[in-house]
């Protein structure tokens, strides 16, 4: 009986958590579309300091294709023109984040 319980315990330890991929490595950070009241409150607090008025992926004006899609990338707000751009961003965030970081720096 102890052997069975020990085996079950070890099996549970090997099940990947949602933050891990199948190899047991940490899953890459993803931009999550703002949905919950808590997320909405956080996003609304960050909007005034958001440095650009265009979609980070397409370059289109925010709100030009309808309602702006707000997402949280970790603790950071990222704004998009549509949900399709969120998917594109999540495929390669490092391609788009420098645009946001460059825009956030004060001119010297």
Write the layout of secondary structure elements.
Blueprint: H1 2-13, E1 31-33, H2 37-46, E2 69-73, E3 76-80, H3 83-91, H4 93-104
Helix pairs in contact: 3-4
Distinctive features:
108 residues, alpha+beta, three-stranded antiparallel beta sheet, 4 helices, 3 strands
Spatial gap, N to C terminus: 71 Å
Average pLDDT value? 81
Structural class call reads: alpha+beta
**Approximate shape:** globular
Write out the strand line-up for the largest beta sheet, numbering strands in chain order. 1-2-3
Low-confidence stretches: 4-21
Main β-sheet description? 3 strands, antiparallel
The total of beta strands comes to 3
Kindly provide the radius of gyration, computed on alpha-carbon positions and rounded to a whole number of angstroms.
19 Å
């Amino acid at each position: 009986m102890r052997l069975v319980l020990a085996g079950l315990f070890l099996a549970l330890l090997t099940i990947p958590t949602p933050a891990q991929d199948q190899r047991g490595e940490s899953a890459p950070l993803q931009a999550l579309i703002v949905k919950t009241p808590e997320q909405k409150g956080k996003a609304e607090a960050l909007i005034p300091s958001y440095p650009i008025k265009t979609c980070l992926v397409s370059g289109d004006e925010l709100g030009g294709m309808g309602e702006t899609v707000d997402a949280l990338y970790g603790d950071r707000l990222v704004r998009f023109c549509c949900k399709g751009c969120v998917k594109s961003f999540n495929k390669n965030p490092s391609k788009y984040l420098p645009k946001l970081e460059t825009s956030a720096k004060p001119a010297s």
